[in-house]
Write a structure and sequence with these properties.
The complex is a heterodimer of chains A (about 525) and B (about 450).
Chain A: H1 2-7, H2 12-29, H3 31-40, H4 44-62, H5 72-90, H6 92-97, H7 105-116, H8 134-149, H9 151-158, H10 166-173, H11 186-213, H12 222-232, H13 250-263, H14 267-274, H15 280-283, H16 285-307, H17 323-338, H18 353-362, H19 378-396, E1 400-401, E2 405-406, E3 409-410, H20 413-444, H21 450-461, H22 482-496, H23 500-503, H24 508-511
Antiparallel strand pairs in A: 2-3
Chain B: E1 2-6, H1 10-19, E2 24-29, H2 32-41, E3 45-48, H3 54-59, E4 67-70, H4 75-88, E5 92-97, H5 100-108, E6 119-122, H6 123-136, E7 140-146, E8 151-157, H7 169-172, E9 178-185, E10 188-190, E11 203-208, H8 210-220, E12 232-235, H9 239-250, E13 256-259, H10 262-271, E14 276-279, H11 285-290, E15 298-301, H12 306-319, E16 323-327, H13 333-339, E17 344-346, H14 348-362, E18 368-371, E19 376-382, H15 394-400, E20 405-412, E21 415-417, E22 430-436, H16 440-446
Parallel strand pairs in B: 1-2, 1-4, 2-3, 4-5, 5-6, 12-13, 12-15, 13-14, 15-16, 16-17
Antiparallel strand pairs in B: 7-8, 8-11, 9-10, 9-11, 18-19, 19-22, 20-21, 20-22
The chains are: A mainly alpha (about 525), B alpha/beta (about 450).
Chain lengths: ~525, ~450
């Protein structure tokens, strides 16, 4: 034992100390729900207590190392533990408030991890203001917004002690392969990304509320506008309304679509666009592929919905044959699942099997690199398609040298290998996890079918949120045994950090020299 | 005119020999034996010394010299020699370089005076352009690049069999970025209008992007011009091989390139998106047969040694390749290559020496191509605020200019802009124009 301690080559104290700093700052993030609690006169003590807890825990962790110095290995540990740490402390309001099903510690952790990782899977039995205070519901929305652009990116943007090594931290956290440094200083890059994120979020909130003011969206109050702005741009998917976006008018649904698409776009493109380089959208191959995928999936789904026809589609009645409805629900649902937002404009559990198949495939696509979307990600699919095409060519011409190109840039072969490895790992984890969830349900006598288990795993690992069957958009994850819920917390966690930064912590090689 | 040539190698000697009749030529070289040899073979003054040293340049008479031609095999020596000469006096400086990066830097500089060089000749690029002219535009009588290669002027002869014979210009012009600058008929220059009829025996001068010139050539002489699916194989990824592939790509062709070295092959594959790069030994006959190099329409041998180029050219020819072009570094071998069956031998030094000599003879500081012995010129001008072309549609600007003036192409920030009647030329644009000889002075004064 003593021997192995001596061999420990990771300065875990430094990592934990910085996690403490981030956790401490989480108290500041709770100011907004606290203000709402005071305004609505409900839940003030909940948030005061949670803030005190965050400061206390954060300050204690900080004492582990008064001058933390981060290396590459400490960076992985810090990023991974930050997400775990904020999810545990962020769960405090649910537990302290003691309202409904999320008061149970495991459920609270599930709900918070689902929030921060922008998954949007819920264990709330009754969503709405009858069971929960408006302040608590807004905290639930806000966790997604904080997690969307990334808590670590935010930390790099505002904490000067992270300016060195910040690139590594963002690399470990940011969705997609590699980060683009937009400015020479990493903190400035982080701030630029957050500013773009903040700006578009504010724009969406404003437009949603404007719809309400002109009478096109009766239910979209100021509270709802802010709440949905928080969770659209984060590709989160939580909604304070039990029926998700189905509770709002068609105008709201149409308005949310472009914002979901924007949320799944590489935020570096917005930064360039703000600098007047609008042509980046047309030139970026990933963006073009992304738009193409959305168009093809939406077109196919719209056709299936419009034709309707099968016996199962009886419920779809009002959609079949109605061009506007078929188009709206198809585009909305495809954008929602491809970008891993997870909103529902109607209960797609009622759709025919072919339509559900299309949506099931969409669960694995994901947003662009550098967006807030999860899952495998568009850029990886694009690289895989291109390298498969190359494989076909080199089979005929074994001597041919063909780099895989993305736009004008050729990719390093190691990057291509990395993308294959990630995608394979993703599917291996998906299948093994699906089996485990199924077995766990059998152990406890919960009745689920294989597709439920599969879609629950795909939806949590990909940070999508709703799946099919018992985890459909109008249902929740409550029926799963607590062991499965904890396991899904793990899936959401590794899914958000793109698996490898967390898995590497589980290898002996990481901890030894 | 007093001309100082630095470097008495093949290029320097060749230029010296061409200029010796009409100019006072001084040649400087570090190698005493070469200096001696030159003293006896040509009517020039040969001095032994380092062309980059001020003392040597003074000895060569830099104060009275009108022109310095730095033509050693070393790029850096040539650049430093020109820079040194400029510190003493202001002779016109010409530098020969191999590295295209230096050429790009020089072209990029605002006043075109980077490194103290007034005119730069890049032998690797020139050679590649020569090869592309031979295999890419065999029907062209003359091809000249402008605006750093973004614009091309080409002159074609219209044969009896040509599909465009007896068509009007507007029928023949189906290309976006191509301008018909002139028709040469019975020794006269005619500015074509849309209804002008092209006849067999005419020569047409077109100005446009390299790709559109290629397309036009395919229209004009389909049997002689390689089409998109024609098979062009480049053997060897040397700088010349690379630029040949790049220029062919610019013309919309898809060549194949064979390179043995793993890292270089990868590098080339990254640089050349429309070229199939293969990593193998090009003398492997089995590989050549498997990749159907025997059916290639043209094979370019661009390996680093003459012996290997000879071997692969003969091998390709023997397998059945249609035409072979080989780079021959040693001038004396060119005829040998052509004797044993290589169709064209291209010698980079010869190409370079020819270009420098041609330029020296014309002594224009602008980029110029002559049409029909001075009957007309194609010139490239960077327009400034005072130009009569700036700030209004071309249609209006041209109406005020004398007859016999055509705007052929425009490049803005190195991008091709198609000149049409309503295009407005801006300050800083590079404009390639066709001008008839008798209005040349009048036109250039207004540009």
């Amino acid at each position: 034992m003593a021997q192995s301690m001596l061999n420990l080559r990771v300065d875990w104290r430094a990592s934990c100390s910085l996690v403490g700093t981030v956790v401490k700052w989480l108290a500041v993030a709770m100011v907004f729900p606290l203000v709402l609690a005071i305004f609505y006169g409900d839940g003030v003590t909940t948030f005061l207590a949670s803030m005190a807890l965050a400061v206390a825990v954060g300050w204690s962790l900080e004492q582990l190392d008064d001058d933390p110095d981060l290396g590459a290995r400490e960076g992985f540990l810090m990023v991974a533990l930050t997400w775990l740490g904020v999810s545990i402390i962020g769960a405090a309001p649910y537990v302290i408030a003691g309202e409904g099903t999320v008061a149970h510690p495991v459920n609270a952790l599930f709900e918070t991890m689902s929030g921060f990782t922008t998954t949007g899977a819920t264990v709330m039995a009754n969503i709405g203001f009858e069971d929960h205070s408006r302040a608590l519901m807004m905290w639930r929305q806000q966790t997604q917004w904080l997690g969307g652009m990334g808590i670590v990116v935010l930390a790099v943007a505002i904490l000067p002690e992270l300016s060195v090594g910040g690139a590594q931290l963002m690399d470990a956290e940011a969705p997609g392969p590699g980060i683009q440094k937009l400015t020479p200083r990493i903190a400035e890059t982080a701030r630029a990304l957050w500013k773009a994120y903040l700006g578009i979020t504010a724009l969406e909130m404003g437009l949603l509320f404007s719809l309400h003011l002109v009478g096109l969206a009766p239910n979209m109050t100021l509270y709802q506008s802010v709440a949905h702005g928080f969770t659209t741009m984060a590709t989160g998917g939580f909604s304070p309304a039990a029926r998700s976006i189905e509770a709002f008018s068609a105008a709201v649904q149409w308005l949310i679509i472009p914002f979901m698409v924007a949320a799944g776009t590489n935020f570096a493109l917005f930064w360039h666009a703000l600098n007047g380089e609008l042509e980046v959208f047309g030139e970026d191959h990933e963006f073009r592929f992304y738009v193409g995928v959305l168009a093809v999936f939406s077109g196919l789904l719209a056709l299936l919905l419009f034709v309707g026809g099968t016996a199962e589609s009886a419920v779809v009645g009002p959609v079949a044959g109605n061009l506007e409805k078929a188009a709206r629900h198809a585009v909305f649902q495809v954008a929602s699942l491809v970008t891993t937002t997870g909103y529902a404009s109607m209960d797609f559990n009622t759709w025919g099997t072919p339509a559900q198949y299309v949506l099931f495939m969409a669960l694995f696509i994901g947003g662009s690199a550098g967006s807030t979307g999860g899952a495998v990600k568009i850029v990886r699919w694009l690289v895989i398609l291109k390298s498969l095409k190359r494989e076909l060519f080199t089979t005929v011409h074994p001597e041919a040298v063909r780099p895989v190109r993305l736009g004008g840039r050729s990719l390093d072969e190691r990057a291509v290998r990395g993308i294959y490895a990630f995608t394979l790992l993703y599917f291996v984890i998906f299948f093994v996890a699906g089996l485990l969830v199924y077995l766990d349900a059998a152990r406890t006598g919960t009745s689920i079918v294989a597709l439920d288990a599969m879609s629950a795993v795909a939806a949590t690992l990909g940070n999508v949120g709703p799946g099919f069957g018992m985890v459909g958009p109008m249902n929740n994850y409550l029926p799963f045994p607590w062991t499965s819920k904890l396991f899904m917390v793990f899936l959401m966690w590794i899914g958000r950090l793109e698996i490898l930064p967390v898995l590497v912590l589980l290898t002996p090689a990481y901890w030894q020299s | 005119m007093r001309v100082i040539i630095i470097g008495a190698g093949e290029v320097g000697s060749s230029i010296a020999s061409s200029l010796a009749d009409s100019h006072e030529v001084v040649v400087v070289d570090v190698d005493g034996e070469r200096v001696d040899a030159l003293t006896y073979s040509e009517d020039v003054l040969a001095i032994q010394g380092d062309g980059t040293s001020i003392a040597t340049l003074r000895e060569a008479g830099i104060d009275d010299a009108d022109m310095i031609i730095a033509s050693t095999d070393e790029d850096e020596t040539n650049l430093v020699a020109c820079g040194t000469a400029k510190t003493v006096d202001d002779p016109f400086t010409i530098a020969r370089v191999k590295n295209v990066d230096y050429l790009e830097t020089w072209q990029h500089a605002e006043d075109q005076r980077a490194f103290g060089v007034d005119f730069m000749v890049c032998s690797n690029l020139l050679t590649a352009q020569d090869i592309v002219r031979v295999i890419g535009l065999p029907a062209a009588r003359d091809v000249d690049p402008f605006a750093g290669g973004a614009v091309q002027m080409a002159e074609f002869e219209v044969g009896d069999e040509s599909p465009v014979a007896d068509q009007t210009v507007s029928e023949a012009d189906r290309f976006d970025s191509l301008t018909f600058a002139a028709l040469l008929r019975n020794g006269d220059v005619e500015i074509p209008r849309g209804n002008t009829r092209i006849r067999a025996g005419d020569r047409v001068v077109v100005i446009g992007s390299p790709g559109s010139v290629q397309e036009f050539a395919r229209e004009l002489a389909p049997n002689q011009t390689p089409s998109n699916n024609e098979d062009l194989v480049i053997i060897g990824g040397s700088e010349i091989g690379y630029h040949t592939a790049r220029l062919l790509e610019e013309r919309g062709l898809h060549p194949r390139l064979i390179e043995q070295d793993h890292d270089r092959a990868r590098e080339l594959a990254e640089e050349l998106p429309n070229t199939v790069v293969m990593e193998n030994d090009a003398t492997d006959a089995e590989f050549l047969a498997r990749e159907h190099v025997d059916e290639a329409d043209a094979v370019v041998a661009a390996l680093e040694s003459d012996e290997k180029n000879l071997l692969v050219s003969v091998l390709a020819k023997q397998l059945g390749a249609h035409r072979t072009v080989a780079i021959v570094e040693t001038t004396e071998y060119v005829s040998l290559f052509e004797t044993v069956g290589v169709d064209v031998g291209v010698n980079p030094r010869e190409v370079t020496a020819e270009e420098i000599t041609r330029f020296t003879r014309e002594l224009h500081t602008e980029n110029v191509a002559l049409i029909e012995n001075d009957k007309a010129e194609v010139l490239e001008v960077e327009v400034d605020g005072d130009s009569a072309l700036v700030g209004r549609p071309i249609r209006e600007a041209v109406a005020d200019m004398p007859e016999g003036f055509v705007v052929g192409a425009i490049t803005r920030n190195e991008e091709f802009v198609v000149p049409r009647g309503d295009t407005v030329i801006q300050t800083g644009d590079h404009v390639v124009v066709f001008v008839e000889g008798d209005v040349l002075e009048e036109v250039t004064s207004q540009l």
